[in-house]
Specification:
The protein is of the alpha+beta class. The chain has 2 domains: 68 residues, no CATH class; 94 residues, Alpha-Beta Plaits. It is built from 4 helices and 5 strands. The N and C termini lie far apart (102 Å).
Length: 190
């Protein structure tokens, strides 16, 4: 029998070999279409879900590690809050900033320094604090200036000496130009 003689309306009358080949090709086409339209999208979705699973497992491991150390973190937070509160207490309040100028003047005169100028600088607003600079120019000996800096450092409030410039003055004295910076916390102190 020739292929041209096959009747597609009566496949059952075909010889067994042609019928088997036709059924195999038809099954392959059906299987291919099923794989392409049904199985392949599900495999793509499965790969996406596997990636999501890996991400979630990593997230879970990180959270599990954090929760395993939760008590230690809580204790650490309490300690950090105590340290933070201690540091906040070393920052002057709005009222204490004005008296800081008096303290610096007293320390300078107590150490035998002669003030040429002491002026408020431009206040700089920062994220959590306000920087309050004080521009100071004093004249004195090396020892007097050193004692002045040490006494400023010993103040109960945080004061930073910045932009220090020493210039030789007359009769063995030195002229110190410095900016004393302090910071005021913007929030409410506890």
């Amino acid at each position: 029998m020739d292929l041209n003689e096959l009747d597609f309306e009566n496949v059952g009358s075909w010889p067994a070999l042609y019928r088997s080949v036709f059924i195999a090709v038809f099954c392959l086409l059906i299987s291919g279409a099923f794989f392409y339209y049904v199985t392949s999208p599900q495999l793509d979705k499965l790969k996406m879900e596997e990636k999501t699973e890996i991400t979630l497992k990593d997230y879970f491991k990180a959270k599990a590690a954090l929760s395993a150390n939760l008590e230690a973190y809580r204790a650490q937070m309490v300690e950090i809050n105590v340290i933070f509160d201690g540091l906040l207490n070393k920052l002057p309040s709005k009222k204490e900033v004005a008296s800081l100028l008096d303290d610096i003047s007293f320390i300078g005169s107590n150490n035998g320094l002669q003030f040429k100028s002491i002026n408020w600088g431009v206040i700089k607003d920062q994220e959590m604090s306000v920087e309050v600079p004080i521009s100071i120019q004093v004249v004195g000996s090396y020892q007097e200036l050193g004692k002045f800096a040490a006494d400023i450092a010993a103040l109960p409030r945080i004061v930073i000496l910045d932009n220090i410039k020493l210039v030789k003055g007359g009769q063995g004295s030195l002229i110190l130009n410095v900016i004393a910076k302090t910071y005021r916390y913007k929030g409410n102190k506890k």
